[in-house]
TrEMBL record:
A Pfam family assignment: DUF4352
Residue spans crossing the bilayer: 23-43
Domain of life: Bacteria
Name recorded for this polypeptide: DUF4352 domain-containing protein
Organism: Ligilactobacillus animalis
DUF4352 domain ranges (all copies): 67-176
Gene3D superfamilies attached to this UniProt entry: 2.60.40.1240
Keywords in alphabetical order: Membrane, Signal, Transmembrane, Transmembrane helix
Length: 186
């Protein structure tokens, strides 16, 4: 409660408690601590994919889980299996860009959803310098598969550097986190 004080002239003043001694201050402080603590400690180390195979996976310095060639990962209602990533001599004479190297990525897709699934647009590749690679027209698969069906997909990507590549798989229209694979191509 506020304290009333009279000065020598008879004026009455109300002395209020300092803000840090008020109940509302401590309520706000406790709520802020919970929010900050939740934001700092509430992160998940899984990248959203559910591993289907029982093969071991490798992980990097960060808490992101990376898969390798041969692993099958479920993203939403789609199962992706990375079959191979290799440098190819195939070139497209009609491409504007002619990179030093072309990667040929082959993966398998199983559609467990109730809708048709676009394939060939569900892969992003990042190079050793962490820049996103542009697709390169070789024998790329751009199609769709019906519910409950499966298909192999081939995609080409141009790069000037070889090294460690990160492949991220997710359906084109999806809110699920992408399944991330790491491969080394020399």
């Amino acid at each position: 409660m506020a304290k009333k004080i009279k000065d020598e002239n008879g004026n009455t003043y109300v002395q209020k408690k300092p803000f840090y001694k008020r109940v509302w201050f401590w309520i706000v402080a406790v709520i802020a601590i919970f929010i900050i603590g939740g934001a700092l400690g509430g992160g998940s180390d899984d990248n959203g994919g559910t591993k289907v195979s029982d093969k071991s996976s490798s992980s990097k310095k960060s808490s992101t889980k990376y898969y390798k060639i041969g692993d099958s990962v479920k993203v939403g209602d789609v199962i992706y299996t990375l079959k191979s990533v290799e440098k190819t001599d195939e070139r497209n004479e009609f491409e504007d860009e002619q990179p030093a190297n072309v990667l040929k990525v082959v993966y398998h897709v199983k559609n467990e959803s109730d809708d048709d699934l676009a394939i060939g647009t569900d892969l992003d590749v990042y190079g050793p310098d962490n820049n996103k690679l542009e697709t390169y027209a070789i024998e790329n698969t751009l199609d769709s598969i019906a519910p409950g069906k499966e298909a192999d997909v081939t995609a080409g990507f141009g790069t000037n550097k070889l090294g460690e590549f990160e492949l991220q798989f997710a359906p084109m229209v999806s809110t699920e986190k992408a399944a991330k694979f790491k491969v080394d191509v020399q």
